[in-house]
Amino acid sequence: MDVVSDAISTVRTGQPSSERVRVGGRWCARLDPYEGAGFHVVLKGGCWLLPDGGEPVVLGAGDAVLLPHGTGHVIADAPADAATVARAVPFGRWADATVPRPPLPAAGEREVEMLCGKYRLDRSHVHPLLAELPPLVHLPSRVGSHPELRAAIDLLGGELDARGPGSCLALPSLLDLLLVYMVRSWMAESRSGAWPTVLGDPVTAAALRALHTDPAAPWTIDRLAAEAGVSRPTLARRFTALVGRPPMAYLTWWRLTRAATMLRDTRDPLAAVAREVGYSTPYALSHAFRREFGTTPGQYRATAGALRP
Question: Which helix (H) or strand (E) holds 21?
Fold first, then answer.
């Protein structure tokens, strides 16, 4: 895999969820902090998003917003003062048939239509690319910008409308695609993130691509430098400066992170996990795993399995 795909697949657990919301009049809804990531896409009209501890953001038609760290927030039809926020309806209650739905627009009244959803994430071993995402990623709609993201939004909205044959497979796949495109769009626009710079450097990107494509290979710094087309000192200097750790240290961390993901998501025996991530024996993996995570692979698997949604 590539770095972005691996970074997302390592933390993604369970199934994402989404719904299409149509509201009008005066409304205000609260979404509490969440162990995952949330998103909103405005399909029609506009609204305000007020993140906990952050500045209000105005969202217009076509805007997408990602809250990658599950930040609590309020969405409302207009700027909301403290008293209004305190009375905000919990967003989850709108899906409860026993609770009044959000107000629908009356004739001639401004209508707001949104796609709202969540991703389940295991934050125990987050890749630094995702860790450096800001609390809120606002991707305004602009002519010609991020066409892949716009196409994914259109497909997702249409699938939620139609619920045709195969929707049970199509919807989770489209939601995963939406997450990839939102992260990719942030990387294209970021002016301060380290990882867009990392992946924009041809030498470091080539080395990372090789390590992520085949982490179990018998990598050495010389072999990796040859793969990147530079000398060993050049690779070590550029990689360490940009990524924050030497190439072989990154490889060890990534192998163990992959092992943790396999222990969480599969029932593969430890010997198979060890081979998959580049350790010659289960003992060698167990020793390194305990040094990195402070627990044995078996204990980790039991705990991760109990917490898995």
Answer: strand 12-24
pLDDT for residue 78: 86
pLDDT of residue 156: 87
Q: Where do runs of H (alpha helix) occur along 59-193?
A: 82-86, 128-131, 147-162, 167-189
Q: Which residues pair with 31 in a beta bridge?
A: 73
Q: Is the dihedral of CA 126, 132, 135, 138 positive or negative?
A: negative
Q: What pTM value is reported for the model? A: 0.88
How many whole angstroms separate alpha carbon 198 and alpha carbon 200? 5
Max Cα-Cα span within the chain: 70
Instruction: State residue 91's pLDDT score.
Output: 87
Region at 70 (left for phi over 0; alpha for psi -120 to 50; beta for the rest): left
Residues of the chain with pLDDT under 50: 97
Tell me the CA distances in angstroms from 286 to 64, 148, 190, one per residue in order: 43, 42, 38
Tally of CB atoms within 10 A around 243: 19
Dump strand ranges (E) for the chain.
12-24, 28-31, 36-44, 46-51, 57-60, 64-67, 73-76, 89-90, 111-121, 137-139
Strand partners, 67: 38
DSSP summary character for residue 52: T
Strand partners, 139: 64
Q: What backbone torsions phi and psi does residue 299 show, to the nearest 5 degrees?
A: -65, -40
pLDDT of residue 26: 84
